[in-house]
Amino acid sequence: MLTLDKTQLFGHIVEQHVNDAAFLWLQRSLAVKHAHHTAASIAKLDTRVQKHLNGLMLSPRQAWDCALEAAEFREGGEVFVLAIQALASGDKQKIQVALDIAIDNPDTLKGFISALGWLPKETVYPWLQPWITSSHSIERYLSVSACSVRRLDPQTYLTALLKDNNHLQSITLYARALRLIGELKRRDLAPVLAEAQAHEHPDVVFWACWSSLLLGDRSVLHRLEPYVLNPGPMQTRAIEIAFRCLTPTQAWAWLNQLNNAPDQTSQTALALAHLGDPQGVNWLLARMEQPPYRKVAGEAFCMITGADLEREGLTCHQVDVDQPPSDDVDDEDIPTLDGYENLPVPDPNRVSHYWQNVRHQFDRSQKYFLGQSLGQPFEPQFLQTTVNHGRQHQRLTLALTHALLDAKAGYANMKAPLYNAT
């Protein structure tokens, strides 16, 4: 009787599942940060990732061996697949192996955390309580990060962690825990945020102020000024939340400083998008005349007015887009924002004409998001439509804006998996 070696027979299929799942996870991790994606396009990526993960579940031993070999490359996607296999198995030894690899660098750690957000709750939740009370800071960090991704309140465990001075020596853990306070709107921990604002590390100060704003404390805004005005890893996040909270007088003072600083034109456009002031539209129209800033200025215009450039016929013809840049401008030397590369290119003349026809609909004393006044919380229908059909930058901004406008609203995670997991 002929005996088939299933390892040889199906090994290449398992390897393909591992490689494809890792690659698609990377595509997905980029998609949730890119403006042009929608819930539908992200859901398609999620479904494709899950199909490959399902394929691996049919041969768990081979899947583990293959995933372990792939994870030696120390890339986020490969560690995501390895962590999925480890956590799904419930095997402590395998989970430790995956974790030892995950802590190698920020990308691999991100892959492990993504797995904690991806898998069903019955697979993940049993690990969160032991980790958040662990003597190892990395395990506490994983538990807090999983709670962040899943918007799960660890209740008294978070309170206890924030009183543990030994573990708060880890800046990454401390900052992540402070961030979770705002994401969950844990108002009982407001005193913790106030204390953290005096910390010497800029990451701790930033997340303490960020969460305080989500809890409704506008008195911390002045502390975000250096993060807004100076290039750095927190600048975009600082702009997004600060300009949703500043008074018009404060906002325009900061905008003028930002605009006058070198290489901050894209950031100024981003700030105008989050300020939502129609008085900034003329400045945006002028930036649409400059090729390096066309897309970010066009996106800011859409964020304020709710216009759809393609639907309204406000984009450049392909022949205009393909024209070579002017000799006096080196586009490659001008810093641009990530995530805007695949947006449509606005036609300045058409957008200007469109604005002249609709500008009467906008009150210069009001702020706007997608054409909706920010004077009061959003209507449920607007929320649902934007979540389901808006582009990703719009969905992300909606979540933050809604949480700031409505004291009772949570801060939804618009990067969470969109396939049917529980």
Strand arrangement in the largest pleated sheet: 1-2
Average per-residue pLDDT, rounded, comes to: 92
Q: Count of DSSP helices? A: 22
Strand/helix succession: HHHHHHHHHHHHHHHHHHHHEEHH
Strand content: under 5%
Determine the fraction of residues in helical runs and give it as a percent range.
55-70%
Give the CA-based shape: globular
Low-confidence sequence ranges: 1-5, 319-335
The counted number of beta strands is 2
Summing up helix and strand content along with how strands pair, one would put the structural category as mainly alpha
How far from one another are the termini? 45 Å
Largest sheet: 2 strands, antiparallel
Rg for CA atoms: 23 Å
Overview of the structural elements:
Mean pLDDT is 92; it is low at 1-5 and 319-335. Among the domains are: 10-119; 222-321 and 338-405, no CATH class. The protein has helices at 6-31, 39-57, 60-70, 76-89, 92-102, 106-118, 121-132, 137-150, 156-161, 171-184, 190-196, 202-214, 225-229, 235-242, 248-260, 265-275, 281-287, 294-305, 318-321, 348-358, 380-389, 392-405; strands at 368-369, 372-373. The chain has a two-stranded antiparallel sheet with strand order 1-2. Helix content is 60%, strand content 1%. With 422 residues, it is mainly α.
Topology record:
Layout: H1 6-31, H2 39-57, H3 60-70, H4 76-89, H5 92-102, H6 106-118, H7 121-132, H8 137-150, H9 156-161, H10 171-184, H11 190-196, H12 202-214, H13 225-229, H14 235-242, H15 248-260, H16 265-275, H17 281-287, H18 294-305, H19 318-321, H20 348-358, E1 368-369, E2 372-373, H21 380-389, H22 392-405
Antiparallel strand pairs: 1-2
